[in-house]
Amino acid sequence: MTVTLKQLETWLAAPSENEHLEFKEAKNRFDFEKLVDYCVALANECGGHMVLGVSDKLPRKVVGTSAFDTPERTVGGLYERLHFRVLWTELNHPDGRVLVFTVPSRPIGQPIEYNGRYLMRAGEDLVPMSPDFLQRIFAEGQPVFEARIALNGVSAEDIVRLLDTQSYFDLIQLPYPENRQGVIEKFVSEKLIVPSSVGFTITNLGALLFAKNLDEFESLSRKAVRVTTYVGNDKLTIKKDTIGNKGYAVDFERLIDYINGQLPSNEVIGKALRESVPMFPEIAIRELVTNALIHQDLDQTGGSIHIDIYANRLEISNPGLPRIAPDRFIDEYQSLNDRMADLMRRLRICEEKGSGIDKVVSSIEAFQLPAPDIRVGQIRTSVVLFAHKKFSDMNRSDRLRACYQHCVLRYLIAEKMTNQSLRVRFGLTDRQTDIASKIITTALDEKLIKLDDPISTSKRYTRYNPYWA
Predict the structure, then answer these.
(1) How many helices (H) and strands (E) does the chain have?
(2) The domain that contains 128 carries what CATH number?
């Protein structure tokens, strides 16, 4: 892509860096060997941009750079060490010179190393690639995980013994075939099983969704969902620890019922809730569990879906890192496991593309709970739901997160966030306009939201959009 001043302004407005974008001040100089390392990491994460002359702390601004005054020589040196071509762009911003290095993606199935090190980024640091990350790269070009073999040399009789075929037809709302051949043909058409020279092969997709017992499939037994209930707000005392052993589709309704059964009930909170209402809306739990299943990194060995229930929160985590920024989960969608996602939609277990997280946030707003918190670690992605808090007990992060998510929801239904709509979100009265205004001002300063009409001078009727709108 061509890097322009307009593109730079867009990057400056982003609330955070991502795996394709790295900022460094480098006012006077920048170590060349460090630049080489960052190029390696960016290439390994499918390419990106290294921007020098911009502050790497919010609020981000151009500070100018004197580093690499002859970029042609710099990219020549990069080519000598890495054997791939890095492009450069010099931008003359009013606040100083900005130098952008554009790094291409590594070849499919081939990680980039330098001095024997395969590097990736973890926050602001460069770290060696984990074995799982390397394994995923080497596996590129091979069949996707869902299509690989879970069990080979299986007879038609074994198919019915190992897989819950009845559940498939119940979920898809079709009558069960009159004979076994009809069952086999349907499962072959869904690529849950594949004919082979010695009977049939059960694919990972077939076993993960419909296994009567995942322990029968050695390579998949560690991918069962684990639910742990703790006493109190920490991990010191486990009340109950359960690991499922059935396929995701077969066991989904029981899993949701089990989670709901482990949750404490809310105290009286206000108009939206009564004492008998569970801590969280069921639709939020259903959508988040489904998302964890279909967005998990199935190639990551030894990892599984974890659902941790505490007295004050629920944490749902899955192995793997998202392909899109966490603050775009509400309005964007990109599945890691398309075949699983497609079938689970047709089985009516999950929603249509892109219509899951918005339902989570909407239901949380209706219950006037703190906004969900999406946390991306080094190898796992987690979503945290919090029990009810009074507005006065919410911290700055709670309020900003709720403000941004509320603004996105309004945008998605072709409406705009206003001071009034935000007061309704927080359960504030008409006399608490100033409190809502302070939250909005902070969100504007943090570049989470922006004015819908920057020219308007009316504060009372000011409307707001997400920063990316």
Answers:
(1) 15, 17
(2) 3.30.950.30
